[in-house]
Amino acid sequence: MSSINEKYAELVEFLRQNSAENAKRVVTENSSLMRHRDDSGRLPIHWASAGGCVPFVEFSVADNPESLNSTDDSGWTPLMIAASAGRFDVCRFLLGSALCEVNHKNNNGQTALHYAASKNHLSILKLLVEADGDVNAQDKYGASPLHRASSQGHLDIVRFLLSCKRIRIDLSNREGDTPLHLACEDENDSVAILLAQNGADLKRQNKNEKTPIDLVRQAELKRKLLAFIED
Predict the structure, then answer these.
(1) Which pLDDT score is estimated for 222?
(2) CA-to-CA distance for 52 and 186, rounded, in angstroms?
(3) What DSSP assignment string belongs to 33-90?
(4) Average model confidence (pLDDT) for the chain?
């Protein structure tokens, strides 16, 4: 007779393959699997969210509404996993529930918005913002979604976040760096210029007393940014 861990591994593989019918067959044979957690503390709904298996996510929530916001050992909810993996349809379903905690933070203080921003999932980011996601949420390092997108050079994400009325463009992280500091340091020229065009503070100093311009290595970008100060 197969152990529950073996059956759970079989279930996880079906969920990763987005094979809802096979997954449902496995849990029908052993209903205890629906509340079984693996070594990372993940329930089947976590794996279904990672695999984009919407029918099984719906099945899980119908079976146990509390699974909607269930967390694994790292504090990740199904929404956070789906946002990170780029599973738009899963995110849309989860956010359709008034019970969904859009601003839940994991053990590192990061929200679903952080992951949508850093992984460049614009459509999911928009869903999260429409669901009252906090665009200024800061993780334990002080980074906001705008920090994450700016450091990664995700221009469309940065542009959308800047269009949000509540956005704090000069929010500082734990090192005193603003999104503009990070864009300049990581040579994301287009992002740096966009931030400057939208009023980011070019004279703000971080904890090392460096301004964004101090971190620029390319003469052409420095020239363009200095022009904003002169204007």
Answers:
(1) 94
(2) 32
(3) GGG---TT---HHHHHHHHT-HHHHHHHHHH-GGGGG---TT---HHHHHHHHT-HHH
(4) 96
Mean pLDDT of 52-74: 97
For the whole model, what pTM was predicted? Answer: 0.94
| Residue 80 in tokens | 């956070």
The burial of 126, by beta-carbon neighbours within 10 Å (0-12 exposed, 13-18 middle, 19 or more buried), is given as middle
Backbone angles phi, psi at 131, to 5 degrees: -95, 20
pLDDT of residue 229: 85
CA 164 to chain CA centroid, nearest Å: 17
CA–CA separation, 213 and 17 (whole Å): 47
CA distance 128 to 46: 18
Name the percent of the chain lying above pLDDT 70: 99
Interior CA angle at 42 toward 3 and 131, to 5°? Answer: 150
Using CA atoms, how far apart are residues 173 and 139, in angstroms rounded to an integer? Answer: 9
CA distances from 118 to 73, 84, 107, 152 (A): 22, 8, 17, 7
Q: Is the pLDDT of residue 1 over 80?
A: no
